[in-house]
Design brief:
Elements (H helix, E strand, L loop, with lengths): L27 E3 L5 E10 L4 E7 L11 E7 L4 H12 L2 H10 L10 E9 L2 E9 L1 E4 H7 L6 H20 L2 E2 L8 E4 L6 E3 L6 E2 L26 H4 L6 H17 L11 H13 L1 H8 L7 H11 L9 H14 L57 E3 L2 E3 L46
Antiparallel strand pairs: 1-2, 2-3, 3-4, 4-6, 5-6, 7-9, 8-11, 9-10, 12-13
């Protein structure tokens, strides 16, 4: 029998974790490479730590234009340590630069890891990580655009995601949580998009040895329910095809406005079975998503190609790119590196009968500065389910996570709240055993 879905309002909550105390602007942290970083004003509080604007240490004050952000949390907390493992193995600047050059890319949308370490203050120890600073997330842009993106934009985002996923897959990891709220625009260049939040990133091929397919009832439905893969619904560890399946659902939602199973997200078994039906008859699935206009042929071909992959297969990334590029050509567009979020339709898009879905309520820890386009997103709970009526359904909230990567300049020492988006950041997958971790030195 299939595993029972947890009822809303039941289940174990995440263990209590300590919050970091606030450091004054000007505090200097030294990473494991002996490089010093200076903190600016705190610009937000995540579930387990504080976020600060930051820059390389100098006599200058860290200003509102700081290019980095540092997340600080008590050293005996676990979320930041978990994400650090991915960044230290796969996101070093020289690795990203080498890949970008060898693959003739203009940029690669993977955040760079600039350093980490431990900091002692008084009798307490804190772990910190230095990362790039980013701007708005795509979920905010999606909502602002009436929950629809132009076809050209969707295909361009798909091409950027293929570049990102191929890179992280070739470095032994899968992301497992691709979605609009985890895609952030560059702070300096709004035509560049980055995939963040590696809290669920999974090392599917340690030292080149592929993990075997194995269903684990304790891990069923891991990830973000509307987008997560069929493998995840069955409790199977994510693989390369999982990322591409999730990406396919995202592109279709961005173009049609709503996936067929979004009315019953409180029922994970229903969502799982709906996705299995979609995989079995992709043409019928596309007809449900685009009932009143032509189906985007390239997205159907994309999903058909992903369907052919076995659990351990390496995807044909270039073939998938060619499918999306053909879609651009079919609507008289080209990949000009300009991300245009206008609501004007270019080819197939959402039907006029598609319901506009209001923004989902999120757990909010801080606000954005209304005078700045960049912001920090609020914490999302991953493992402490609560009954909350959202869009007509009782949705189970997810476990706390937070990320230091999308931030805004704010008035000195003023913590602010950001709207309604999910934090790209740190989370521990449901069902994974909690391990006591040693500090990263």
């Amino acid at each position: 029998m299939p595993p029972k879905a947890k009822a809303a309002g039941k289940g174990r909550g995440p263990p209590k974790r300590k919050l970091a105390e606030a450091f004054p602007p000007g505090e200097v942290l030294t990473d494991t490479g002996k490089k010093s970083w200076k903190l600016g004003s705190p610009i937000g509080q995540g579930g387990f730590g504080l976020l600060y604007l930051a820059d390389e240490n100098s006599s200058k004050t860290v200003g509102a234009d700081a290019p980095y952000v540092i997340k600080v949390e008590p050293s005996d907390n676990g979320p930041l340590f978990s994400e650090l493992k991915f960044y230290m193995r796969a996101a070093k600047p020289d690795l990203i630069q080498s890949w970008t050059k060898s693959h003739k890319l203009k940029y690669l949308g993977v955040p760079k890891y600039w350093g980490s370490g431990l900091h002692e203050k008084g009798d307490k120890r804190y772990r910190f990580m230095v990362m790039d600073r980013f701007g708005l997330d795509l979920q905010k842009k999606f909502e602002e655009s009436g929950r629809q993106f132009p076809r050209k934009l969707v295909l361009q985002l798909g091409l950027r995601l293929l570049d990102i996923l191929e890179y992280i897959h070739e470095h032994e990891y899968v992301h497992a949580d691709v979605k609009a709220s985890n895609l952030l625009l560059s702070h300096k260049n709004p035509n560049q998009v980055y995939l963040v939040d590696y809290g669920l990133a999974y090392r599917y091929s340690p030292e080149g040895i592929l993990k075997e397919y194995k269903e684990d009832p304790k891990r069923c439905h891991d990830g973000t329910i509307e987008f997560t893969s069929i493998d995840a619904h069955k409790g199977v560890s994510p693989c390369r095809r999982s990322d591409l399946e999730i990406m396919g659902y995202c592109m279709i939602q961005w173009l049609c406005g709503k996936l067929p199973w979004e009315d019953k997200l409180q029922d994970p078994l229903y969502v799982r079975d709906s996705k299995i039906q979609c995989r079995d008859d992709i043409s019928a699935f596309m007809s449900k998503c685009f009932p009143s206009q032509d189906k985007p042929e390239e997205l159907q071909k994309f999903m058909e190609e992903v369907k052919t992959l076995s659990y351990t297969d390496k995807p044909a990334y270039q073939k998938l790119r060619s499918i999306l590029e053909a879609g651009l050509k079919s609507v008289g567009a080209k990949d000009d590196d300009k991300l245009e979020f206008s609501s004007a339709l270019n080819g197939a898009g959402p039907s006029s009968s598609a319901k506009k879905i209001p923004k989902r309520k999120r757990v909010v820890d801080y606000k954005e500065d209304s005078n700045d386009e960049s912001y920090v997103t609020p914490t999302k709970k991953r493992k402490s389910p609560k009954k909350k009526d959202i869009n007509g359904v009782k949705k189970v909230a997810s476990a706390n996570k937070a990320s230091p990567v999308n931030v805004a300049a704010t008035p000195k020492n003023k913590l602010v709240e950001t709207g309604t988006q999910t934090t790209p950041g740190l989370k521990r997958a449901r069902g994974r055993p909690k391990k006591k971790v040693d500090p990263v030195e």
